[in-house]
Amino acid sequence: LKRIRQILSRLRAALFRENRDHDVADELESHIQMQTDDNLRAGMLPDIARRTAVLKIGSIESIKENYRDQLSLPLLETFVSDFRFALRMLGKNPGFTAIAVFTLALGIGANAAMFSVISAVLLEPLPYKNAERLMVIDEKDEKRNQGEAYSLSYMNFQDWAAQQHSFSEFSLFRRSVLYKMNGRARNLITARMVSGNFFSMLGVAPIVGRAFIPDDDRPEASPAVILSYSGWQKFFGPLRAAFTVGYSTNLLDEKLQFNGSTYTVIGV
Amino acid sequence: MWETKRDMKEKTDVWQGTLALMVLKTLDVLGTQHGYGIAKRIEQTSGNLLTINQGTLYPVLLKLEQEGSIASQWGVSDNNRRAKFYRITKAGKKELAAEEREWHRANDIIARFFALRGEEH
How far apart (Å, rounded) are the C-alpha atoms in residues A200 and A198? Predict the structure, then answer.
């Protein structure tokens, strides 16, 4: 405890530069004065009295030095003064400082960005059920090097799904583009065609409405669409969208016209 | 401290320890006192066998203060000199009691060994 108190006291002195040099000098001077007084009372001549007092106390500078050493942590003290010196030099060369800081910022920024990408892509598992067992299977014409990614036809998908034995679930995920008439202009909308078990396989549920179910795969089922949240806001207005969130009510039965046919919005 | 500078360096720890003990005891007896008073009192108590190099007293005072065994305050002495006055704290009294016990015990042990030697010869 004694030791801790001492270190704390030193730390305080070092950090706040409590200047006790002055204090010590005063204290030593007062000591000499009192010794001189006593010497005078003992009958010494004034200058001899003072001289004897000074001799008796010893080397004042050495005491002060001793004091200073004891007052602070020398290592910390030099570190602090080095740090101050560095700051001063940086202040003197603003150009150099700017370049150094810029370089550091660039380096740190680039590394942070790289790491966040790597972390998201490689390190973190996908936010889906059984993410480690998810695979993407695709087809491609090797000879002609043709075939867009994610463009498996529904028929092929059905064949694959029926004949494969490796996966517990098999679901279609196919690129497609819808267009929506806006007056006389056609707005293209990026879309995906998925099979009915797609959402249940990933373990993802829409925030409003329901997900696709295998029943939606039947040829006689009415075309159904699940909108992205931004799509929901775009087609129905942000206010309405905000109100609907959290109510799994039957929003829905909203119809949208895509590619000239009517789709029922079943979820968001 | 009492000897040449080289000796002082070698023995500083021991002597600082004993000097600290003397300071604590002196303050315990005298109450509030300034550095000069403490030095004078120590010399008197030792029957002037110890003439301390008074300067070495101050680092010891500082150390004791940092450890929280004594506290200091500026004030005015009897003959109207500004001086820094020291007093012993509660922690200091505890420390002193412990050190005193320790010192006596060590003394007893050493004394026994000296007595032993006397019997043999």
Answer: 6
Residue of A34, A38, A50, A60 to mutate, interface with B, max B Cβ within 10 Å: A34
Say if pTM beats, i.e. exceeds, 0.95. Answer: no
Q: Which one of B36, B67, B68 has the shortest CB-CB distance to A31?
A: B36
Letter for the amino acid at A146?
Q
The reply to whether A225 touches chain B by the CB within 8 Å rule is: no
- First-residue to last-residue Cα distance in chain B: 36
Exposure string (b/e) for A200-227, b if CB count within 10 Å is 16 or more? bbbeeebebbbbbeeebeeeeeeebbbb
Task: Give the side-chain half-sphere CA count within 13 A for A219.
Answer: 2
- The pair phi, psi for residue A210, each rounded to 5°, is -125, 165
Tokens of A5: 């108190």
**What mean pLDDT is predicted for residues A165-189?**
80
Residues of chain B with pLDDT under 50: 1-14
Q: What mean pLDDT do residues A54-72 have?
A: 76
Determine the Cα angle at B23 with ends B18 and B29, to 5°. 125
Pairing mode, strands B33-34 and B82-88: antiparallel
